[in-house]
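Can anyone check this?
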Amino acid sequence: MAIHAAVAASSAVTNYINIIPKRLFGLLVSLLFIVESSAVLAQEESAAEIEEIRVMGQSIERELTAQLAEFGNQLEVITSADIRRSGLNDVMQILEKLVPGLFISPRHGNRMGESDPSLQGGDDGSVLWLVDGVRVSMRIFGTFRTFIPPQYIERIEVLKDGQGLFYGTQAIDGVINIITKDGADLDNGEVSLAVGTVGDGEQSVSGLVTHRTESSDFLLFAAQNRGDAQIFRDQDFDATTLTRLRSWDVRSIGFKANRRISDSQFISLSLLRNEMEVSRPAADNYYLRTNDRTQDIFSLKYENHVNEQLAYFVKAYWHEWDTEWNRIDVADDGSLQVIHNGTPWWFEDYGFNAMGTFEQDGGSEWVAGIDMQKVEGADFVTNIAPKVETVWAAFAQYRPVLQFTPDTKFALGVRYNLADEGDNSTVWSASARHPLTEQTYFRISGGTSFRNPNITELFQDQTNSTFCPLPGVNSPCNLIGSAVAGEKLAPQESQSVNLGLGGLSNLRGTEVEWEIGYFDRTINDLIQEVDLDGGGNTITVRNASGKSTREGFEARGTITFTSEWTLHLNGTWVDAENDGSGEQPDLIPESFYKGYLSFDSEGGSWGAQLTGVYTGKIYDSLNPAVGGRQNFGEYATFDLSGYYNLDRFGDKRLSFRIENLLDDEEAYRLENATAPVSGTFRRVEVIVPGRNIQLTYNQSF
């Protein structure tokens, strides 16, 4: 098995090298030169020293979120073991089912699609997405569309509340950082095969191999996931709609390499490529809508631990996305009408960041750095001409040792952002964590964050686009960006506070880890769409004149009954309003609750997990002709998963997951649909897939 996997890995590397963009070639050559020139020195070190240095090499960037949690920020971590036990095979489903305080609203069903996240009452444009610390939030739309196979994920870190200090624009509600596996963390490889019954069937295959030497470690990963599903009810489709299944075919390959140059210097390289073919059905008179996409994420980092007090890293990154959009409609006479045939939209997000830490005598610490980000993009589907934006930033955080309360962790920071599109901005943050007793703690964080307008909000001009050929049918077809409309759009800014009380209790032999928290954010200059004529004929993007708020409570607990039985429960309650409207904004639930009960047999040879999610009232606004603003929440979904190890080492594992255990046909969200000739509006619902089962076989070697 290992030999076959190595041969396949070698072939995959060759194929990837053939498609690496030319602009990366110089960086790769430089990397190889550094690696080879240091080979002799690296081979002189012992294995024990190498292990110690590897841990040190991760202590700046990869440990940043853990350090922020130590200093009072709220952090949730989903591990690879959590993912494996759940049986979930999609990142959005993992977040939806397992992360407290995070609500996910899928746009096109709950498989391999776009979704709107709401983190503690926020909106989708105010959460920053990262993969291994590289920004992957799309600066054209502000959304997340990156496919990361769960088998490739080491952990998912969710930092809540404003995180603009270290992460910059869009981190108003928090940061979701997907950390992929590393060759330094693994000693072998694995292959995974999965099939499912949703739609006409889904299949996935993935595998990774690692190789380690005294001074280097490498990891190669490859995966493919394909399938389809019906996301609208049969009765909601128009009679002219010929394509009713949403399908996907996603191929991924990833490569990581770490090299020790000396006892204190390291260099690392990461590459991830996705190739995606995704269809997007609608309930209207569409025959076919497809996106053919390629995505590349690249990073190159040099890190130096100068001495016990000083360390720093410099990192360059590049994120490219290319899409060809195809759309074929059914005309009034029943013939097919080609609207788009390979129309492109694309963007590039690249830059560098540098950060260093310095510990003073006495233990106080400084963390400081600079960022440069440049974004280029265009969308010839929605009529956005090529645009370029550059942002520079400098930031610093001070972590003093407080002599009067040495057990308290306290941090204070500031960041200045210089942007060539929109206004410059300054943000600050302060946080602290204090142990009340040996088993309880209090944490608090607060400050300001910001979000720069994305390219769509500034430059889109749908009134001259063939994306929506029927004027007045759907509001996005009439959207004019603020810059096109001749209006200035300021960055969206927020002031926030997030506090929590938590601890570990033991009740008659039952261990309970718990936390109750409160969050409050006030948003100034909220970026929002404005209907200029009240009929959806002309829409632009403006800053709200009043304040917008997000206030709520969150509670979570983990109850360990025995070494075999564990129960996780959490609930979130949100009171939100935009621009003083007094109404809960669309797609932000008033409350939602999650939980999962896990059983792992003694020795871990088999186990099972029951997962449930309940969503309270949640609203979506449709055209007034079909009722306008409506509640579609107050529903629950349950999944059951389990695993069995086929050998005593756990190298061969068979697992299953039954999705939507009760086979409830609930709505994930609402949409407007129109009759093809009259243009009459009607309501349709994006539905939860019916009961289906997924089977997975995993082989480690």
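Reply from J.R.: I decoded it. Residues 237 and 283 are 4 Å apart (CA to CA).
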